[in-house]
Amino acid sequence: MLDEKTKALIAVGASITANCQSCLDTRTGKATELGIPDADILAAIEVGKMVRTGAAGKMDVYVKNRAGAPQPVTAGGGCCS
Question: Is pTM, for the whole model, over 0.85?
Answer without folding.
Answer: no
